Amino acid sequence: MPTYVLNNAGFHFRCWGDHLKKPFEDVNPFKKVPAVQDGDFRILESCAALRYIASKYDSAGTWYPADLKVRCKVDEYLDWQHLNTRTHGLGYFVNMTLVPMKTGTEPDMTVVQKHEEELGRVEDLFASYFLNDKPFIAGDTVTIADLQAACEFEQPQAAGYKLKTATKEYLERVRKAVGHGLYDELHAAPKDLVKAMKK
Amino acid sequence: MPTYVLNNAGFHFRCWGDHLKKPFEDVNPFKKVPAVQDGDFRILESCAALRYIASKYDSAGTWYPADLKVRCKVDEYLDWQHLNTRTHGLGYFVNMTLVPMKTGTEPDMTVVQKHEEELGRVEDLFASYFLNDKPFIAGDTVTIADLQAACEFEQPQAAGYKLKTATKEYLERVRKAVGHGLYDELHAAPKDLVKAMKK
């Protein structure tokens, strides 16, 4: 399981479902990952955490640009993804991997196919509206919006979803911008999980 | 219908479903409301629009405070609400009003009751985590997070959902902070719709 998502809050997952009960419920009453800890300050939503970390630690303002219009385009993606890339990317991944592991049954392909169809629609809107021929969501440089998008596309891909060429090329640009080593480390957990399932 | 949500982008709804087709599809390819226009700059997500408008026009920084920790708590609610207050508040309202109006049938109470149950859970988390004995989400003063929360609680209430006392008291604090006249004007649309249905 992706222990890295909560290393920061001092909690290690042992198996799926740990996030739904105590002691994690005391860390995050929403029973969701991630939970981020900065000193005595805790943040329970990933996008809020990305904004906070970038604002506090990236003095150059690269990851969350201060220019209002550029920042707004970063925010627009981070708001949109909740019911789009996140819902269907995570939905595909969870229903292909974690749910069958937990229940000991085959994936419910009716549910998986619904997420697969929606993810196709999401990829098209992502390419046409958010990228719109730019290398990254906010323009020529990578931002926290791209970090979020990469997570959401890498998870279903790890579980067998066939990303469109434009999305794969975009992920390769994000990987290059972040650095291949760090990017691969960050995205190893879903791939490792799928490998473990196949053994 | 709530024409005010798009007055700003020069588009007036005539009936439910207008947002799903042209010419609105050209305004917002996501086929969702609102769409906000500031000069030649268009914003298609409500939370991104609230952040942008507050950052650009509220020089006092009241609505979206610059202090990183306070701002993070505003962002945390704005991120959380998508799959919680928004999903179930809007879900209750739409399934009690717009869907029956469109289809000419009675509300699907199985769907409505699911949103009703979830909205009860949302109200409890909202009170215990986001308010946690404070008057507003970010502390002692009203912010854009409270504007968003008020919309999401007022809609199901207009359609018959019985809010808990703590939520009603919170909405009254937001109403007082915004100003009774403006608040009532902003929240008139869902109430007017329900009145029109009863005629």
TrEMBL record, chains A, B:
Annotated GO CC locations: cytoplasm
Alphabetical list of Gene3D superfamilies matching this protein: 1.20.1050.10, Glutaredoxin
Domain GST N-terminal: 1-61
Origin: domain of life: Eukaryota
Molecular function as annotated in GO: glutathione transferase activity
Protein name in the entry: Glutathione S-transferase theta-4
GO terms, biological process: glutathione metabolic process
Entry-linked Pfam families: GST_C, GST_N
Family according to the record: Belongs to the GST superfamily.
Organism: Chionoecetes opilio (Atlantic snow crab)
Cited InterPro entries: Glutathione-S-Trfase_C_sf, Glutathione_S-Trfase, Glutathione_S-Trfase_N, GST_C, GST_Theta, Thioredoxin-like_sf
